[in-house]
Automatic annotation (TrEMBL):
Pfam families: TENA_THI-4. This is Aminopyrimidine aminohydrolase. It comes from the Bacteria. It comes from Conexibacter woesei (strain DSM 14684 / CCUG 47730 / CIP 108061 / JCM 11494 / NBRC 100937 / ID131577). Catalyzes an amino-pyrimidine hydrolysis reaction at the C5' of the pyrimidine moiety of thiamine compounds, a reaction that is part of a thiamine salvage pathway. Thus, catalyzes the conversion of 4-amino-5-aminomethyl-2-methylpyrimidine to 4-amino-5-hydroxymethyl-2-methylpyrimidine (HMP). Its EC number is 3.5.99.2. The active site is at 210 (proton donor). SUPFAM superfamilies: Heme oxygenase-like. The lineage of its organism: Bacteria, Bacillati, Actinomycetota, Thermoleophilia, Solirubrobacterales. Keywords: Hydrolase, Thiamine biosynthesis.
Amino acid sequence: MSSFSAELRAGAADVWEAQHSHPFVRGIGDGTLALDRFRHYVRQDYVYLVDYGRLLALACARAPELETMRRFAELTQAILVTEMDLHRSFAADWGVPAADLESERATPTTRAYGDFLLRTAALGDFAELVAALLPCMWGYAEVGERLAAAGPPEPDPARPYARWIATYADPEFQALAAWCRELMDRLGAACDDAGRARLRAVFAESSRHELAFWDAAWRLEPAARDQRSLG
Ligand SMILES: Cc1ncc(CN)c(N)n1
């Protein structure tokens, strides 16, 4: 019998395959992505990760057991420190201070994804919160793993995509994503059919936001005019 997370993944398979074949993802993999698109992505992803960090902190607060709280506290740290250090290091290489990343204004796509995550955390139950956060961890683990397996591009200071791939293919990141899947499996098993249908819908919606995020970076989507930075 397949796991509940595998069932969620199968239900959103078309969206996940569209991510793998998106020109932005392919361009990271073969090293051909134009740097302006990658820089746009890094700036917006920094804004996104601030909201994602908030989501993980809310998951920590709402977790039903101490061990799950502890794991979410670790995961929050991994995102706000380790993953965001990657973005800060790219920015530093481009002469952009971290303060500039923090004052970046969200595009409509970044804002929509962050709003969806935080709305789900505020109004959904704990299992829905986990279904919302899963495509982020699992999707990047899968992209990193596939691109690393295909043979990453040669290290190139002008196009630092090999470093990006190595971060998400790293066994530590893979293990964090695997823990999120196992948690989803346990929560899915404890739900009734109606609850599992809600989790499928949340996971599918979150997966669509992931695809839209690649696409917004590819299109160099401009920031929404009325956005505040960091919130
Ligand atoms: C949009 C997005 N999704 C997922 C990840 C991986 N944490 C990320 N950095 N950005």
